[in-house]
Design a protein that fits this description.
The chain is of the alpha/beta class. The chain has 9 helices and 17 strands. Helix 5 crosses helix 6.
Length: 339
Amino acid sequence: MSERELEATDIYDLLVIGAGPTGLACAIEAQKAGFRAVLVDKGCVCNSLFHYPSHMTFFTTSELLEIGGIPFPTTNAKPTRNEALEYYRQVAAFYKLDVRQYQLVEWITGADGDFTVHTRDRFGRAGELRARKLAIASGYYDLPNLMGIPGEELSKVHHYYDDPHPYYGLNVVVIGGKNSAAIAALELWRHGARVTLIHRGPEMHRHVKYWIKPDIENRIKAGEIKAYFHARVVEITPDAVIVETPEGQKTLRNDFVFALTGYHPDFDFLEGLGVEFSGPDRLPVCNKETLESNVPGIYLAGVIVAGERTNEIFIENGRFHGRQIAAALTAALKPQTAR
């Protein structure tokens, strides 16, 4: 029997969709409880962290990012993106996690006790993995909140900020009023871009970190970063952005746009599995103790538990969801004989 045929008949105790910190924690805790786990991610390990700004520093301390009982050493008070990526790679290696990278989950068939997860790799080849239980820890960073305006599809428009260097000497618009917008605007300005910030609110959001908020406000007050509040972009053209402001419509010369308007979980994928939602914030229906959704055998972990309230769950608290799911597996399943 070939390796592919053997895998098609094999069945895992738990398949985790998403190999970010929360997904890794789910697989680790399941393994520690004696279960066979596998992870599937459409990108690399910690794909969302990889796409964070290259020079990003976390807002939290390293011990609050730890998973699997492995210390996170750092020489800084707060770890950087690169340190976090190194840490999570080392944790995955320590626990010998079975991570299937660059495998997009297209659909799922079967039911509690015997799910089949249908995947496709980056070359278009189909694959299948079977599992008795599923945990979805797919996060939300892959799906930006679109503005739905003309020109949003232009190549000059980005929904993720990475590095300021390519924008030196250019006219850059940053849309948004929270942490990501403030950080991008400040870094771009400090590296020589001409920055205009546009936000629909009356001022920078009150949740902007306390050491960032006065910095961005002082740059705006000094006129070093131009800002329009109570404003919104209504159209983007190759050479300009058109903005509705309290003083009327303005056309601003522009080379690049960073639309940092937030992100959301993949509600369509969850609904396709039968997961139900409640309330205006689209909270998925799940047991608060076990994190099992209304669909038997499908558990939810990480930020998707909070629906559209994506500012409630971070690595710091989502990392503990693995323990809840492992406890639920222990109560529901008998571990398979080691192979």
